[in-house]
Amino acid sequence: MNPPKNWVDDINELLSRLYGDFAVPYEDITLAYLHKMIRQPNKVFVLALDTTSHPHRIVGMGSIFFLHTTHGKTAFVEDIAVRRDYRRRGIGTAIVKKIISCAQKHKALYADLTSQKKRRAARRIYRRFGFEDYNTTLFSLDLSPKINRP
């Protein structure tokens, strides 16, 4: 798949809102980096498109990657986001539903995700699908002062 260039801008807009005030290293992705991510065999992207716009815009997204861990094959869910002006239309629910279906298709035993406490609407969707809050804290170690992406 060769994503159109405007998708890079759409994804960066979604990610900047998702990670804007979160303490993780974040830098805009490039078209080359998007190509690299899409080609990973253990990663799946779910995109919600507005097909009425030209060119088509990404209005929601999520991704999932798979690892074999000590407790079995695990699906890690990342970057679920919906543009503000497209919220409350069932897009987030559809993305989560598709991601769970993908995890089941890949025979994952678990699906894990993290979500900031302030993202109440997203957390309601996750709970509705059976995700449980394990009352854990995410620890992150920044190993580089700047992300180096092609």
- CATH homologous superfamily? Gcn5-related N-acetyltransferase (GNAT)
For the termini, the CA-CA separation is 18 Å
| Biggest sheet, spatial arrangement of strands | 1-2-3-4
- Number of separate domains: 1
**Series of H and E elements:** HHEEEHEH
SS strand fraction:
15-25%
The gross shape turns out to be globular
* Helix proportion: 25-40%
Would you state the CATH class? Alpha Beta
Could you tell me the radius of gyration in angstroms? 15 Å
* Number of beta strands: 4
List unreliable stretches of 5+ residues.
none
Give the mean pLDDT: 84
CATH architecture descriptor text = 3-Layer(aba) Sandwich
CATH T-level topology: Aminopeptidase
Largest sheet: 4 strands, mixed
Number of helices: 4
Structural class: alpha+beta
State the main characteristics.
150 residues; alpha+beta; Aminopeptidase; 4-stranded mixed beta sheet; 23% strand
Describe this structure in words.
The protein is an alpha+beta fold and 150 residues long. It has one domain: Aminopeptidase (3-Layer(aba) Sandwich), CATH 3.40.630.30. Helix content is 31%, strand content 23%. It contains four helices and four strands. The chain has helices spanning 5-19, 31-38, 91-105, 120-128; strands at residues 43-50, 57-69, 72-82, 110-112. It has a four-stranded mixed sheet with strand order 1-2-3-4, with helices on both faces. A hairpin with a 6-residue loop joins strand 1 and strand 2 (57-69). The mean pLDDT is 84.
